[in-house]
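Tip: read the tokens left to right.
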């Protein structure tokens, strides 16, 4: 662990307080700008950091998560040029308090409701390659708030993992994943399980050509049939056959079983899942 004496410039090593070289704006003025924060230890594995760039300065925190890696976060702007307000602009003492609170919140997330650390490891938040990307950007551009970049990368990863599971289920029931989406779309509208081709490709966000190819494949397997629309003699409906209903039901049952296993592994309550869904809905509405 690097001590403050090794990082502090000689001009301020005589400060009466060990970390006074970060505690006052006058002491921080003596520090040259650099690409990485100046770190000072607060607790075992926990550091508060001061980043000084050419045009701005910010407070950061990090703690050791193992395997030579740290998890890092931006705490707020410093009071080098503005008065501290305790919210977006922090003095040194406020930065220390926020770093300690951040660590406490992280530790709390690792402990289950019954307080038992024996099972906490099963549901603890683990670092991965996406964390490394976020930390790398925080290190290289600590003047920018890029936390949502990591959030969207994690959403993309979760979507990819879900599609992998659905693809495996499609293989198990004898269709490809695109064809499975057609079967499920028809099944969920209810009897007589019929939709127009136009409604299908709009619902599944694919082109009409891609949808025609999927329908042809399913029709060859006798899982769907093209039937005349009783309300429009010039129109056609795509209808699930009895075998198509069986395949769709078998697939949705496997999906439900897989989601139950995933929900148990996540260790989240129904209330937490609803809360998460609410945040994602808010994000979707803002994107629109």
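Filled-in amino acids:
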């Amino acid at each position: 662990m690097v001590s403050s004496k090794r990082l502090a410039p000689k001009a301020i090593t005589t400060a009466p307080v060990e970390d006074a070289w970060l505690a006052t704006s006058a002491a921080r003025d003596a520090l040259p700008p650099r690409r990485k924060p100046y770190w000072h230890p607060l607790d075992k594995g926990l550091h508060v950091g001061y980043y000084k760039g050419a045009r701005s300065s910010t407070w950061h925190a990090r703690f050791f998560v193992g395997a030579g890696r740290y998890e890092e976060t931006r705490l707020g702007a410093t009071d080098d040029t503005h008065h501290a307000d305790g919210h977006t602009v922090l003095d040194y003492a406020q930065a220390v308090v926020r770093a300690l609170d951040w660590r406490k919140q992280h530790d709390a997330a690792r402990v289950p409701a019954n307080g038992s650390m024996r099972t906490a490891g099963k549901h603890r938040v683990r670092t991965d390659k996406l964390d490394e990307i976020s930390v790398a950007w925080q290190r290289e551009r600590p003047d920018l708030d890029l936390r949502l970049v990591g959030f969207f990368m994690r959403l993309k990863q979760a979507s990819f993992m879900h599609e992998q599971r659905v693809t495996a289920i499609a293989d198990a029931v004898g269709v490809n994943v695109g064809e499975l989406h057609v079967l499920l779309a028809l099944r969920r509208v209810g009897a007589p399980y019929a939709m127009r081709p136009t409604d299908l490709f709009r619902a599944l966000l694919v082109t009409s050509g891609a949808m025609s190819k999927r329908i042809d494949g399913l029709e060859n397997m006798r899982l769907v049939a093209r039937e005349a629309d009783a309300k429009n003699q010039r129109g056609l409906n795509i209808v699930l056959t009895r075998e198509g209903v069986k395949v769709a039901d078998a697939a949705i049952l496997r999906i439900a079983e897989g989601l139950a296993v995933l929900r148990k592994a996540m260790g989240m309550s129904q209330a937490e899942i609803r809360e998460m869904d609410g945040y994602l809905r808010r994000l979707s509405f803002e994107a629109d």
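The two ends are 47 Å apart (CA to CA). The beta strands are 38-43, 46-52, 57-66, 69-78, 89-90, 194-195, 224-229, 232-240.
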